[in-house]
């Protein structure tokens, strides 16, 4: 395996640790590797993937198809893992509910989610490869401590609750197989900690790809469910809802979006790319990895809808979803093998999801607290990083083992918090990808900003609808979504008009031009060397509105949780 010169700093290149605060390092000459801003020097070195290794200093003389394929296999991992990890216990439950209650009729939602996934995660790919700094740390440094701590605090809470739901999924899967939760949950926790504390990024990634291979059981399971191919093809491209549009159907569509496009994905993939030592030279390969993962997650979600539809088609339980274990029981009535296979899929999805979500939290803590946070390090070198991971797993598993624990409330809170955080996470992602101090020649193109802005607007409407219906369950969902959409459009038009007025007479920014070689070697300088963000009137207005929305939503969520708990 070879790597082009300048793919990452070589043995003689300066490392982030060599640049102290305020050190005005000389800018790199064209073709010269740029010093990296990474916070842990274990993030610099050979790329050691599960399926190959790329050594630094090798020259890339052979650019044939075989070499490109080998390079892709070595790079592949972060995009695939983050996407498959999103089909976790909550995802299995949501897609199964769609299939059981609405047949194939919501498949079109999955097709619309592909561009959303690709746009969001492609921006994450560039941030990770170019900056070498995690998402939470970038937010903290560029937008202030309030937003940095808010993003990490909410991410921690959301991720912790999500990990609890993963263990709920593990319990449901093993309970169907006749195994007590007091056996299955601790064993699953030990497996999660064991594969992460190996001190080898490569071994960790190999373990994750092994679990992903197990998830492919979904394909034969879906084929054994006798798909109605004509109906499937039609419902993928023709929007509709079986039985007509209702509030429950709209809520389920929002849940599908929320479980497929989750905030933790942004934090995980960016940090995992950094930990794998992927540099701008390999951005196109990581983009391909992300595209592959996007299609895998959609195929898996569609398979779950087909399977759940088959389990209850023509029975009195069609339209009455209970939980994922209920789907296993429904399949078991048809064939014991089908029920067991579905339980294995649920167990596997829960483990992959728990591993990715827990690691995203540990990465974020490492970034914020300047801890060593790399899977390349052994336990002795990165105790805080691994102890944070193990503690999250242990406490989340312990919650599931508590008798009469409010697991239903936890599941509801996960959905509400995900809806709350996703728009704000997407806003910061868009702002960072337009920050020339951070991405230099890798900033967003105008068309990408337009597409991302539309996506954020849609997410805001869905987020507001989910929050409103969580707090006030008896309101009409369709009316809420409609009014929020109209209100957001009006606010958007007013904001654009005011911004255009405020910018009258100001010079347009000049876009710098970089050669392909300069782009491939450009890395973000040390954070202390970056010029501070200039808060334009439009940015101040938008961030102030976002802060007010988030604070109000958090307060209302707390009030709602206290009422339910009481």
Low-confidence stretches: 1-34, 501-510
Radius of gyration using CA atoms only: 23 Å
Taking the alpha carbons of the first and last residues, their distance comes to: 60 Å
Give the number of DSSP strands. 2
Spatial order of strands in the largest sheet: 1-2
**Largest beta-sheet characterization:** 2 strands, antiparallel
How many helices? The count is 22
Q: How are helices and strands ordered from N to C?
A: EEHHHHHHHHHHHHHHHHHHHHHH
Global outline = globular
- Derived from helix and strand composition plus strand pairing, the structural class reads mainly alpha
CATH topology of the domain at 29-414: Amino acid/polyamine transporter I
For the record, the CATH architecture of the domain at 29-414 stands as: Up-down Bundle
Q: Which percent range fits the helix content?
A: 55-70%
Strand content: under 5%
